[in-house]
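Narrative progress, year one. The postdoctoral researcher (J.K.) led the effort to move from monomer predictions toward full complexes, under supervision of the PI. The following entry was the first complex the group processed end to end, covering 1389 residues in total.
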Amino acid sequence: MTRRAYILRSLWFYRRTHVGVVLTAAVATGVLVGALLVGDSVRGSLRALARARLGETRLALETSGRFVRQDLADELAAALDAPAAPILELSAAATASDRAAGGVRVLGVDARFWGLGEATDPFDRREGVVVNRRLARRLDLAPGNTLSLRIARPQALSRDVPLASDQRDRNRDFVRLDLPVLTVVGAERFGRFDLRANQAAPRNAFVPLARLQEAVGLAPGIGRDEPHRRVNGLLLGDGPGMQAATAALRQHFTLADAEAELRPLPAADDPRVVELRSRRVFLAPALVAAAGRTEAPALGVSTYLANAIRPADGDSVRPMPYAMISAVGGLGETPAPEAMPADPAWRIARALTGDDRARINAYLARQLAGADGAPPDALRVRYYRYGNGRLAETSARVAIAGDPLAMPTPSDGPDGLLLRRLTPSIPALPDDATFADLKALGTRIDRDVIDRNAARLDAYYGRYRLTPMAYLPLDVGRRWWGMPQGDLTGVRFDADAAPAVRAAVREHLDPSALGVFFRPVRREALQAGRQSMDFGQLFAAMSMFLVVAAVLLLGLLFVFGIQQRREEIGLLRAVGFSPRQVRRLLLGEGAVLAAVGAAIGTAGGAGYAAGVLRGLATVWRDAVPEAAIAFHATPASVVGGAAAGLLVAVGAMALALWRQARRAPHALLRGQDEPPGGAGGRRWKLAAGGTGVCLLAAAGVLAGVGAGAAPSAATGFFIAGALLLAALLSGAYAVLARPGAARRLTLGRLARRNAARRRGRSIATIGLLACGSFLIVAVSAHRSDPLARADTRDSGTGGFALQATTAVGLLHAPDTPQGRQTLDLGAADLSGASFVPLRVRDGDEASCLNLNRPQRPRLLGVDPRTLTRRGAFAFADTWDGLSGPRRDSWDVLNAELDDGAIPAVADLEAIRWVLHKALGDTLTYRDANGREFRVRLVAGLANSILQGSVVIAERHFVARYPNVEGYRMFLIDVPPGEMPRVRDALAAAPDLRAAGIELTPTRDRLAALLGVANTYVAIFQALGGLGLVLGTVALGLVVARNVAERRGELALLRAVGFTRRRVDRLLLAEHWLLLGAGLVGGAVAGLVATAPNMLASGGGVPYGLLAALLAAVGLSGAASTYLATRLATRGRLLPALRNE
Amino acid sequence: MSRTASLLELIDVHKRYTADGPAVLRGLSLRLDAGERLTVTGPSGSGKSTLLNLIAALDAPTSGRVRLDGTDLATCSETHLATLRNKRIGMVFQLHHLLPQCTVWENVLVPALAAGGPSAETEDHARRLLDRVGLGDHAPGGSRAGDRPGRLSGGQRQRVAVVRALVNAPALLLADEPTGSLDRRTADELAGLLCELNAEQGVALIVATHSRRLAGQIGSVRPLREGALGEGAPQTDTPPKDDPDEPTP
C-alpha cells in the first residue's frame, strides 16, 4: 500500500462522484485557455496584418509634407546595401461610373515597391492603375474599367499663408487622371500597403511613379523650374538599422532635398550674389542656421505683401494697395561694410542697421506725398498677420529714414534685378506678374481695390513687377509677419561663398530638423500589434464570472464528495494521520482530478476559442470591425491557461479540504460533519456591526460625491455599490447566525433556521448570485442605445448632424463668405447649416475600431471657442492636475501647463482602452520640423464621435504643423429635419467633390463606435449568462445536497404530519430566500454602483432588457431549485427515519 | 512494589462539550499497565466513547490529565498526537470503517501509510495477523488477495478492523462497542480474539461496551456512572436474560 495506490484506488472507486469535479475543472480551464487563445489569435492576426501592410519594409522615410529627390532612394540603397523604394503618396477623390470615393490614397510606385512586398509588378510596363480590393469593392471596379482620380496638386506653400492663394481652382490645382484598371490586388500582393497601424484597409490606387510625378508637377518638365523627380516617401527593406539609415540620410541629404537652392543672382552667367531660396517660399529656420555656419557674410531677406501703405499721419492721401515690402538685414555677427558691394539690397540693409526706420522707393514716395509734394515722415502699413491658424489684418507704424531710394527696373540691369529678386517666387503668381495677377491670391485680395487702383498699380507693376516698394530692418519684418513656416524668404551670400554654403549645409543640416527622418515602421507595427487591446485578458476578464462559477461549483462538488467520505477521513485521523497528511492525501486525489480536467479543458479551450472567433466573425463582428481574426495558438498560452486552470481547481479543493480535515475525528467517524451549533455566538454581532459600518460608509461616500469630495462621481458610486454588496453579505450572515428562539415557529422561520445550519453554503450561494446580478447590472449600465438623445449637445454627436472629411484641406468653412466664394458654392443651399472646422494631422485611428495600439494617434486642431459656445459634447472626466474655473469645457484646451505640454482632449474610453493611458498622461509627437513635443490628455469626453483622434487647440496645431494646409474635417450643425438637404447640397458642390468630401451622419458614426462597446457588453452578458447558468446549477446542487443531508429530518416532518407539498414548500422557501437575497441585493448594489452611468450616459440604458435578464436568471434559479427539490424528495422519505 | 510510569494514566479528568453543558466525565481517574485489560461498561450516554476518545488523543479533557507512557497528552503537538495514535494506540469501532475502495490487505496497511508507507516488517506483521484472525488468504498471493471489504461478512470486516488496529504493534488497543453490529456468535468469536491477542501480543486492551456478555468475556469490568469509574462488577460469561444486546435466536 502506497500513497499513490491509495489515491488511485480512491479515484477509481469514486469515479462517478469525480465526473462532476473533472468537468467543472475542464470548464474553468477551457474558458481560461480559450480566452488566452483568443488573445493569441488577435495578436497573431495583427502580426499577419502588419506583414501585409509593410511587406519587407523595415524603415520608412517621413517627410512631413516635403518632397525629396527620388535619387535619394538610389543613393541610400547603394550606401546601405539594402532595397529602397521611393513612393509618392497623394490624397485623391476617385470616381468610376456613378460611384465616388473620398479618402483614396494614390501611390506612385515602381518595381522596387513591389519587390519590397515580395509581389510581382502588376504593371508590367502597362499604362493604367492598380487598385486594392477595398477600393475595388467600394467603386465596384474590375479590370478594364476606367478609374478617374482627382488629385490635388501638391503645393509648396501652405494656402494658409497670405502669399498663397486661398482659392483652389478646380482645373488648375487638381490633376485628373483617367486610367484603365489593370488589376485588383489583395493583401497577398501588397495591395494592403499602409504605413499607419490601422486594421481597416486603406483605399489604395497604385499608379506608375513617373506617370504620377509628371502629372502633378514633381518631375522636370517644360516650363517647370524643377530639376528633380520628387517623392514624399521612401521605404527601406531588410538590412540597415535606424542608426545607419539616419547617418546615410544625413550624408546624402542635399539642399535639393530640403527643397532649397543656391541661385546665382542676378543671372547664372553674371553671379554677383547667391541666394538661398526655397520653393516653399519661407526658409526653414534649421536650414538658415546651417547655411549661416559659414564665415561668409549673409543677408537675410523677408519679403511680404502689404495690403496697404499710407502715411501714418493724415488721411487725405490715398493708400497704396498691395505693395511688396521687404525686410533686409545681416545675419549673425555684423558683417564688414565692404561685404557684397554689388548688391543694392545689402546697401539698403546697411543703411537700416540699428534703426527702426523704413526706406521707401521713389514711386511710393510720390504716391504718398502730401499736398506739398513731400514724402511722409512715417508709414502705417496694413498687412495680414498669421497666427492661431487664422489671418487677421493688422497695421503697424514705422518712421521713414533718408531720401526715397532710386528705382532701377529689372530690365535696367543687375541692381534692378537684384531688387526685384528680393520678392521670392510665389507659387500663385507668375514670375513676371503684373497687378492683375494679384487677383490669383483669392479672397485675400480685394478685387475692387485693385480695380479702383488699376492705373497706379499698373504703372508700377508694369515696369517694376514684384520689386518691393518699401524696406524695413530685418528684425522689424520678422516681428511683424514672422510665421511658423519661417520668417526669411531668402539669404544672400557673396557669389564666391557658394561652395562654403553648400558644405555648411551638408555638414550642419540635420534632416530631422526639417521633419525628414526615418521611422522604424516594422518595429512600430509589431509593437502596435503586441501592445494591442489584449483580447486574451479581455476575454479572461469577461469570462471571469464563468470561471468563478465553475470553480465554485467545482469546490462544492469536491466538498460534497469529501463529505461523503467523512468517516474515511475520521478513520485516517484515528489511525494516526495528521490533518495535514489527510489533506495531502485527498488533495493528491483532487490534483489528479484537476489535471484530468485541465487536460480536457485545454482541448476544449481550443474549441471555445474557435467558437469565440466564429462569434467575432458573425454575431459579434462589430467588436472587431474590418478585421479577420484567424486562429493562432502559442505554447505559452496553452501551458499558461492549463496551469492556471489547474492551480485554480487545486486551490479551490485545498480551500474546501482545509475545513473538512480540521473536523474532530470522532465526530467524523460518527458521520457528523456539520459545524456545531446553529448560532454564531458573537459572530453575528460582529457581522451585524460590519453591515452597519458598510452601510454608513456607503452613505458617507455618496454624501462625499454630493459634496464634490470624492475623486469622481463614477468612482464614488462604484465604491458605494461595492460597499452595499459587502453589507448584503455580512447582513445575510448576521441574520443567519443570529441566535434566539422565534416567538412563533412558522414555515418561513423554519426555512431561515434551515438556511442558517449551513451558513457557509448559504452565504456562498447568496454571494455567487449577488455577484452575478451585480455584474449584469453594472455591465448593462454601459450598454447604451447609441441613438437615444443623439440630437442633444451633450450626447456623443455633440448635437452635430453631419461630419464631413475631405481629401485636401479647405481654407474656409463652407458657411463663411470666403468659403462660399473660394468653394464656388453660389448655388448650394446651405441655409441654416453651421460648420466647426478642424485641422487634421493624419495618424493612427485611436478608436475602438482599431485593434492595434495606436502609436501616433490622429491629431485634430480646433478653435475651442466654437465648441464651447455650442456646449458640444459631454465631458466625462478631467485631469486633477488642471487648474482653472472651467474644467468641463473646451476651454481646457487653452490651459497653460507648467511643463509646456499641450493640453488635449480625447474620448475617455479611447484614452483608457485604446491608448492605454490615463488622464494626465502624455503622448509624444514630432512637429513639422522634426522636434518632439508632448501632448497631455487633460479631459475625456463621454462616448463621442471624436473617438479616434486627439484634439488640441488650433493655435497649438498651427504652430506645430504649419505645413498642414486648411481644414479636412467639419462638424456640421443642421436645422432639425434638414440634414438630407444640406448633405445633398454639399455632396453636389463641384469643388467639394473635387476635394473628395465624404459626409457621414453623426448618428451613423456614433452607432458604429458604440456598436463596438455594446458588442463587448453583449459578449460579457453572454459569458456572464453562462456563468449564471453554472451558478443556478450550483444552487440546484446545494438544494439537492441539503435535502440529502436532511432526509431523516424531512422524514420526521412527514411522520409528524407534513404533507409532501408542505415539505417542498419548506425547502423552496429556504432556497428561494437565498436566491432572492442574492439577486435582488446584487442588483440594487449594481444599480447604485452605476447610477452615474445610468443617469448621464448619452444613450439610454436598456432597462427593459436588464429587467428581463435578471428575471430570466431569477426564473432559471427558481426552476433549478424546484427541480432539485422535487427530485431530492421524490423517493420515500420515511425509511430514512430508520436509518437515523 | 515501586511502580514505574504506567502505560496509561488518567488523573481527575473532567469533560464537558460546552461551557454550560452537563459534565460527561467528572474527576475520572484510571491507571492501566502494559498488557492489562479493562472493560468499561455503562448505558448509552454514560461517557464511554468520550473516555475512549480522550485516551486515543482524539479529544482533549476539559480538565485533568491523560498520560500515555508517562507523557501528558495535553503537552503534545497535533503531530505528536498523530504519531502516538499511529504507533502506540490501535482502535476498533462499532462500525468497521473499512475503506471500500481498498482491498482488505490495503485496508490493514492504511495506518502504516501515515508514517510514509509499510515496511517489510510491517507487512510481515500484517500477514501474520491476518493469518491469526483467519483471513490469511486476503494477503498478497492469497486466493482472495484482491477482495474488497464489500465481499466480507460483518464478522470478517470487524476482524480486518482489529488487524488494522494492531498492524503497527500498538501498546494499547481501544475497542468501542466492537461487537455492537455483530450477531452473538460472531460477537463471541471477536471477544475471544481480542482476549487472545491481548495475551499473545502483550497489548493492553480497553473495551467500552454496554453488553454485559462482552464485558464478562473481556473481564476487569468497571462501570462508568455519573462520569466516574466505579469498582469492578463480578465477571460472568452468561449474559443476563434481559440483555438488550442479545439478538433473538
